[in-house]
Amino acid sequence: MRFTVPEPAFVAIVGHNGCGKTTLFRALTGQLPYQGSVQVLGQELRTLQRPAASGLLAHLPQRGSVEFSIPVRDLVVMGRFRHHHFLGAYQTQDYALADAALARVGAAHLAEQDFTVLSGGEQQLVWLAQLSLQDARLYLLDEPTQQLDVYYRRRVFDLLYSWVTEQQRTILCITHDLDNLAALPAGYLLNLSAPTPVLERLTPATIRAARQYLESEESLAVRR
């Protein structure tokens, strides 16, 4: 598989379960070895020891977890980690940015709450707020709307698209939410379930084709 993503861009990565979507992200984040070449802004990823620390990429996995009590605001501000020396204290301006990030995802009211007692959907909004503060060139998001209701799914996709258009970021987003993809003004689609995955323009026609292909694959799996 070979593809080149223009910058900035929103790329929706779709496919049936087990087709390699999360595996692709694990390779991009250095968690799995890979053959071939993966370059971001002309830099080969395997030569970078800490791509996140360099500001090159940021990753939101499918299921984040925190094993200790922490106020939401303190968790979000950690997205500013690469702007500080190790163990450096966060400043007033960092917390102001954290508050603004929470407001953008509709979670300002959660700022003082304990993250561990929030619902799954609320926690996902907090993770998105933290991710936005990492100020990366490339964002990798694995199913960012899977635990959210209809209203927040639409809000999250609008937010991600604003990162592309307003902040000139590039986003690779694994998702099954084809309905909300159809509402985006522009972007690209990569169907990893296709025999030969290629990067296509995100249009009603390509979304419809992807939906039909995925539904046919699911039907085939059931019959098997």
UniProtKB/TrEMBL annotation:
The keyword Nucleotide-binding applies. Keywords: ATP-binding, Nucleotide-binding, Translocase, Transport. InterPro entries: AAA+_ATPase, ABC_transporter-like_ATP-bd, ABC_transporter-like_CS, P-loop_NTPase. Gene3D superfamilies: P-loop containing nucleotide triphosphate hydrolases. It comes from the Bacteria. PANTHER family: HEMIN IMPORT ATP-BINDING PROTEIN HMUV. Part of the ABC transporter complex HmuTUV involved in hemin import. Responsible for energy coupling to the transport system. This is Iron complex transport system ATP-binding protein. It comes from Hymenobacter luteus.
